[in-house]
């Protein structure tokens, strides 16, 4: 190959990769902005709920007519415990929404900085493409034009393949996190059944240990799904939803241990299993689609490289 063309090809490939990063950043910023709007609405919603629940706690603690009547019936402490549990659950949801919001804002800043750095790439790539076209025409006439078209298509395929593989990586991480949450929920369900049969404080503690694992795992799931959605932004229109579990009435189970409370917790665990399983299935379906796209792109890229090699051989001979 002509050394001038070889040098142009190397520079052109580097600039093409940078241009791909630019288009990727633009698409991901748009997706992150959509997610940011969702999380802001969630933060406002959970913040309002938390403030309302905390106000109920404050009113009972400070006294007043309602507190007075509840004290007469002997229900004040039970009602106060209930209000505190609800306030704590609301605060956990609010704190998580704020944490998600901070995470998305940080990612947006990072992508914004990257986009700023790559603004000039497209202009440089256009100038280089024109120079390459002139050289190819000089060297090979019609063959040179064909080679340039093959190079352009090869760069497109390599970019698409890279994006699909990055989406696959993010999706597999989300799938792993979801599987771990399902394992924790299955364990919690098993110990919950034992708890209802009279397992006592030990089985209650073990059950809630698994529920805590599920809650912690869901925080990782939420971030993993956010990353997966972002990676999918410039791959296709595939989407996956957010999920949350709720409080599972943990404090009610500890301090008012009884069959009705346990059934309430079991019902919540069952609902969570269904919700997480549904999202897990959707993620697996998206991964299957991406794996098919990866195979197709690999096949097309190999065929294109073979055509390009044959074309270069014809130029050399």
CATH superfamily of the largest domain: f41 fragment of flagellin, N-terminal domain
Q: How many structurally independent domains?
A: 2
Structural class: mainly alpha
Global Rg = 29 Å
Strand share of the residues? under 5%
- What is the molecular shape? elongated
Distance between the termini: 11 Å
Low-confidence runs (pLDDT<50, min 5 residues)? none
Q: How much is the average pLDDT?
A: 77
Major β-sheet, in short?
A: none
Describe the structure.
The termini are close together. By secondary structure, this protein is mainly α. The model has no long low-confidence stretch (mean pLDDT 77). The protein has helices spanning 3-62, 65-73, 76-117, 121-140, 142-232, 250-255, 259-316. It has two domains: 1-130, Helix Hairpins (Orthogonal Bundle); 141-317, f41 fragment of flagellin, N-terminal domain (Up-down Bundle), CATH 1.20.1330.10. It contains seven helices and no strands. The longest helix is centred in the middle third of the chain and has 91 residues, at 142-232. Helix 1 packs antiparallel against helix 3 (76-117), helix 3 packs antiparallel against helix 5 (142-232) and helix 4 (121-140) packs antiparallel against helix 5 (142-232).
List the helices and strands and how they pair.
Layout: H1 3-62, H2 65-73, H3 76-117, H4 121-140, H5 142-232, H6 250-255, H7 259-316
Summarize it.
With 317 residues, this protein is an all-alpha fold.
Features:
90% helix; 0% strand; 2 domains; elongated; f41 fragment of flagellin, N-terminal domain; 317 residues; mainly alpha; Helix Hairpins
